Amino acid sequence: MIELENVVRSFKIVKRKSGFRGTLKNLFAPETEIKRAVNNLSFTIPDGQMVGFIGPNGAGKSTTVKMLSGVLYPDSGSLRVNGFVPHRDRKKYVRHIGVVFGQRSQLWQDLPITDSFEMLKSIYKIPDEIYRTNIELFNEILSLHTFENKQVRQLSLGQRMRADIAAAFLHNPDIIFLDEPTIGLDVVVKENVRAFIKSINEQRGCTVIFTTHDMQDIEKVCKRILIIDEGALLYDGTTEKLRDVFGEERVLTVSLNEKTDTLTACGIKSSVDAENPLDHIFRVPKQIKLPEMITEISAKAEIADLRIKEPEIEAIIRRIYEKGAADA
Ligand SMILES: Nc1ncnc2c1ncn2[C@@H]1O[C@H](COP(=O)(O)OP(=O)(O)O)[C@@H](O)[C@H]1O
Ligand SMILES: [Mg+2]
Fold this sequence. Notes:
Blueprint (H helix, E strand, L loop, with lengths): L1 E14 L3 H10 L2 E15 L4 E5 L6 H9 L6 E6 L8 H4 L3 E5 L11 H11 L4 H15 L14 H13 L5 E5 L7 H18 L2 E6 L2 H7 L2 E6 L2 E7 H8 L2 E8 L7 E2 L2 E2 L1 E2 L6 E7 L4 H11 L2 E7 L3 H11 L5
The protein binds adenosine-5'-diphosphate and magnesium ion.
The site of adenosine-5'-diphosphate has 12 residues, from strand 1, strand 2 and helix 2.
């Protein structure tokens, strides 16, 4: 179980001044300010859950992941992961976790990945049997064999990320932290990475937290999401609930058999699609029931086809960032 209670972490940052005088001042008497990267963050994640940790750039995601993995300590508040205090118990703790930072490889740049894996095997004292099974399984999903003899520095970003992710899972950790594991990857590799994370989570029951600002990651992989902005929690819940509570309207498109002027149903007026004049588009607020609308429309015109588009998670989240969850 992962437990955070009122976690705060600040950084001292230098206020940069421009111009000649400013440059001198930066050098000799830099003015600093304190930036709260994580501001009173509290949440709990039970064993085996897969959680998407999302937020715009600079929201405090990486800082949180660094504290969870024990490389940064909090200024105040408490962090506990499976009974460990990450930054204090780091030595014992690392065996239980796997970490991937999308921006930086954890592998040895000059070694082929097979050698890196062998090194990890001995560092973590991974039994032969587990090592063999894992390499085989990871190969199957991530096709590592196609580049296993190349040095890490020669790999493409997508290959490097697949290798990094495999490396993080090699010692069967109970908890995995992935910081932007899909950043910069092409669509196919992204799909591979998502499938991998999902299947390991299901098969092994490990707890997974991953940060992303890719909405597809969230829709395809996570049931629960935590949204943070400016170091504070804005939303904690399922993607379905997010849609239910914050999704304002669905778009109903009705194709008719004959051209008609604007239609009105349940008080909502349609707009006629300029390109397909047989298509009427209704923006339906969430308090209106779709079956009632469709019944009303079909009493007025003959319906050939209809499509319903649910509100997009991406649009909902953008609105939450803009307004804050309380009044989104
Ligand atoms: N080592 C650091 N020194 C100074 N400021 C930092 C440091 N790490 C992060 N910050 C600042 O803390 C805030 C949160 O950063 P980060 O956790 O990296 O956000 P995210 O991963 O969500 O993009 C940002 O304003 C960032 O500039
Ligand atoms: Mg980050």
